[in-house]
Amino acid sequence: MNEIVAGVIHWKQVHPNIGAEVSCYYLVGERVLIDPMEPNEGLDWFREHGEPEHILLSNRHHYRDSAKFAEAFGCTVHASRPGMHEFSDDQPVEPFDYGDELPGGVKAYEAGAICPDDTALHIPAHSALSVADGVINYGGLGFVPEEHLGDDVEATKRTIRDSYAQIAAEAEFDNLLVAHGEPVVGGAREQMRAFAEG
After folding, report:
1. What is the pLDDT of residue 109?
2. How does strand 175-178 pair with strand 141-142?
3. How far apart are CA 84 and CA 195, in angstroms?
4. Phi-psi bin for 181: left (phi > 0), alpha (psi -120 to 50), beta?
5. Residue ranges in the chain whose pLDDT is less than 70
């Protein structure tokens, strides 16, 4: 559990469905989890450092261990409306619309392209932007493997770039919280603009 900027905790955990590490975040003061999996330290870590109240999903595929947190702490899970069909009756999720202000003062932006519910979460209190699958960071911002980009790979890449160019123009952020790879601490908006320009 690493505090990457004041009040933002990052950790990685292997996702059993994909067999790879994914990134998870906790906004301590806001008591908001983003795309959580249970850390190696277990749920007791949160009992000692402040129990979460809300879970924000950057897309429907990132439900991950949300049920464990909801059961342990009574968290409300929030996901964007276009992805609501994915959740079963035993996965209570509150829908949000793009442009909504969410718990923690977070604003939801449509990222689109890969799936209609791909969401960027702007977190002004921490000068951060959390992103789903449109942008990953393994030694530099990039795309997920091309087999996940649909039938017209280049068109999908263009749409992703256009989406993030618009988001970077509207939202001020210095840090990037990626779901896949390492977070970017400092200079993230400039890196996102460079990525969007191709």
Report:
1. 96
2. unpaired
3. 30
4. left
5. none
111-114: list long-range contacts, CB under 8 Å, 24+ apart: 111/160, 111/163, 111/164, 111/167, 112/159, 112/160, 112/163, 113/156, 113/159, 113/160, 113/163, 114/144, 114/148, 114/149, 114/150, 114/156, 114/160
Size of the chain in residues: 198
Spatial separation of the C-alpha atoms in residues 192 and 136, rounded to whole Å: 11
Structure tokens at 106: 């977070």
CA–CA separation, 116 vs 86, rounded Å? 12
Structure tokens at 102: 């969410």
Q: At what angle do helices 153-170 and 188-197 cross, to 10 degrees?
A: 140
pTM for this structure?
Answer: 0.94
Classify domain 2-197 at the CATH superfamily level.
Ribonuclease Z/Hydroxyacylglutathione hydrolase-like (3.60.15.10)
Under 8 Å between Cβ of 167 and 111 = yes
